[in-house]
Amino acid sequence: MMPPKLQLLAVVAFAVAMLFLENQIQKLEESRSKLERAIARHEVREIEQRHTMDGPRQEAALDEEEDMVIIYNRVPKTASTSFTNIAYDLCAKNKYHVLHINTTKNNPVMSLQDQVRFVKNITSWKEMKPGFYHGHVSYLDFAKFGVKKKPIYINVIRDPIERLVSYYYFLRFGDDYRPGLRRRKQGDKKTFDECVAEGGSDCAPEKLWLQIPFFCGHSSECWNVGSRWAMDQAKYNLINEYFLVGVTEELEDFIMLLEAALPRFFRGATELYRTGKKSHLRKTTEKKLPTKQTIAKLQQSDIWKMENEFYEFALEQFQFIRAHAVREKDGDLYILAQNFFYEKIYPKSN
């Protein structure tokens, strides 16, 4: 057995080594981020140069489908990576661009000047049209900036408690997408049930308040936890400003509807989701389902009641759209063919 002094020295040496390794890993992560940004800038320049070499662009308006822009302002931990990877897998085949909106520290609220830059990019960046933009950004009303043609918004939401549980364990254990990446809460072994029982901040009802503000937008009241106005505005935007909002629990049906309605982007998406290796690419590891007692405690919160009301509202709307777009046969869903036509067309041609 080692003498006490040598044991102490070994412990100190091990601690110093671990600190050194953590510091090196942090530096590698920073270098990786810088490299990713440099590669992204290079890719953008290459695309713009390619378009320039093809000859001067026509001033005439682009074809409607070629001028289309979709924004997927993805809510964290709603299967957004699985869905986004379908867009990446199809972009070369279906001939459109995919761009990730990478905000500093994943802040979903843009500064006013960044809002102006973003709107300008989306509407005038012709080299990137048709384009599919995705990122953790709250809804932005393009109309207030005076643009003539607004982008198409889509999104997916999830049962609020399931989303919070997934996010809680993701911060501690990561997922199978980048298993080696060090997460912010790594090393904290406390379960979600234990966190709720102890009244921890990472599982507090206030952490449920996310899907409503993402749909509400950039107004200050949207981020006022428990605001009834924010929920009403989120509902209004979901109905009036979003082309389609699906739910994580019925993701395949969401993809099927998008393929039927927007084939320019999503042709082949349903089959890819069913058979592709990336269908469920990102799974949070070490996730433990909460007990009934934990769920019941969270459900006593007014914040949960509001977030759940919004989720149920979105689910009802999605199921209504699906009911009028598909038919069921032998347990499978099929998209309905065109169900209208034109007649009594006047004046008659000679």
Tell me, rounded to a whole number, the average pLDDT. 86
CATH topology type: Rossmann fold
Q: Which homologous superfamily in CATH is the superfamily?
A: P-loop containing nucleotide triphosphate hydrolases
- Global morphology: globular
Low-pLDDT segments: 56-61, 179-183
Can you walk through the features of this model?
The protein starts with a helix and ends in a 15-residue tail after the last strand. A hairpin with a 2-residue loop joins strand 6 (326-329) and strand 7 (332-335). With 350 residues, it is of the alpha/beta class. The protein has 12 helices and 7 strands. The radius of gyration is 24 Å and the shape is globular. The chain has a 5-stranded parallel beta sheet, with helices on both faces. A two-stranded antiparallel sheet has the order 6-7.
Q: Could you outline the blueprint of secondary structure elements for this entry?
A:
Layout: H1 4-53, E1 69-72, H2 80-94, E2 97-100, H3 112-124, E3 131-134, E4 152-157, H4 160-173, H5 192-198, H6 211-216, H7 228-240, E5 242-247, H8 251-261, H9 263-266, H10 269-275, H11 292-298, H12 302-323, E6 326-329, E7 332-335
Parallel strand pairs: 1-3, 1-4, 2-3, 4-5
Antiparallel strand pairs: 6-7
Helix pairs in contact: 7-12, 8-10
Descriptors:
350 residues, Rossmann fold, five-stranded parallel sheet, 12 helices, 48% helix, transferase
Tell me briefly what this model is.
This protein is an alpha/beta fold and 350 residues long. It has one domain (64-335): P-loop containing nucleotide triphosphate hydrolases (Rossmann fold), CATH 3.40.50.300. It has 12 helices and 7 strands.
